[in-house]
Design goal:
The chain is α+β, with helices and mostly antiparallel strands. It folds into two domains: about 170 residues, no CATH class; about 90 residues, no CATH class. Helices cover about 35% and strands about 10% of the residues. The protein contains 14 helices and nine strands. The strands form three sheets. The protein has a five-stranded mixed β-sheet. The protein has a two-stranded antiparallel sheet with strand order 4-9. It has a two-stranded antiparallel ribbon with strand order 5-6. Helix 8 packs across helix 13 and helix 13 packs across helix 14.
């Protein structure tokens, strides 16, 4: 089995391969919990999916602007053509945020070499500069001395692009983080869940280190030492709502509606919660 969202990771199998122990934990979990069979559409391709749907009622608060954790710690994918073209079309704004082009110029790369890297290199910079001169994710930037944000997402917001355009331009693993999708080897079935107390033994992200989906962690003194602001308790909402637009455009309208309807049927979420005013993906 594979961590589906990481199949195109620059480090290959060492990242995306699910070991046997985790595979067994996943199978046991999906036998134990109620699941929903549906269809997802990812980058235009249809897949059969089995969804741990109750996990999407878990509370979430994606307060990226106040977070000190380095979620953008490395390049999560060999970048897609649409992302490369977007950066070339917005090179000045991209460089203003990330300083990547300036850094490469300082290290004696020519403009032609920099353009070639954006067009052709896995991480859009020369291999020898990855995680050296260009630390963290190539597309990450720091708007201040605290949080780390996504330059792609930020440029999209600056241009008033909508949720669909943001999802199309960003790597899908980043849009869906920390949702986990694990596939059979032949991709005949995708298993979809969220890190929590029950799944953290096999999900690629550790629930106990992920305040976005762990409200209890966000209230601890240890977390507050690093993050004195943000992650307010009353701003945690069911993940299906916090990521509503993202789910629709990343996994398809059918996935979103099927999961939402099942959660409503079982009173795991409530209609009044549908009135959440601000869509996470469009926050500025």
């Amino acid at each position: 089995m594979n961590y589906f969202l990481f199949l195109n990771h620059p480090k290959g199998e060492e990242v995306y391969r699910v070991d046997k122990e985790r595979e067994e934990l996943l199978k046991e979990h999906f036998k134990r919990v109620d699941t929903l069979k549906t269809e997802v559409v990812i980058r235009g391709k249809k897949y059969n999916a089995i969804v741990d749907y109750s996990a999407f009622s878990n509370l979430a608060n994606f307060d990226c602007f106040k977070c000190q954790d380095p979620c953008c710690a490395d390049n999560p994918i060999i970048y897609e053509k649409i992302t490369r073209e977007f950066i070339l079309e917005n090179a000045n704004e991209y460089n203003k945020k990330t300083k990547n082009i300036d850094i490469l110029l300082e290290n004696n790369y020519s403009e032609d070499e920099i353009i070639d890297a954006i067009e052709n290199k896995d991480c859009m910079v020369p291999e020898e500069s990855v995680e050296n001169e260009i630390s963290l994710c190539t597309c990450s930037f720091k708007p201040n001395n605290e949080s780390i944000l996504c330059a792609l997402h930020s440029i999209c917001l600056d241009q008033n692009l909508g949720a669909k355009e943001i999802v199309d331009i960003k790597p899908i693993v980043c849009s869906l983080w920390p949702i986990d999708i694990i596939s059979e080897e032949d991709e005949s079935v995708l298993y979809i869940t969220v890190p929590d107390d029950f799944t953290t033994g096999f999900t690629i992200e550790d629930y106990y280190d992920t305040p976005c989906v762990n409200k209890e962690l966000s209230q601890t003194a240890t977390f507050r030492r690093k993050n004195p602001e943000g992650f307010l308790e009353d701003e945690y909402v069911p993940l299906i709502f916090a990521y509503g637009e993202t789910l629709k455009y990343s996994l398809g309208e059918k996935f979103y509606e099927d999961v939402k309807e099942r959660l409503l049927e079982e009173n795991l979420i409530f209609l009044e919660e549908l009135n959440i005013k601000e869509k996470q993906i469009l926050k500025k």
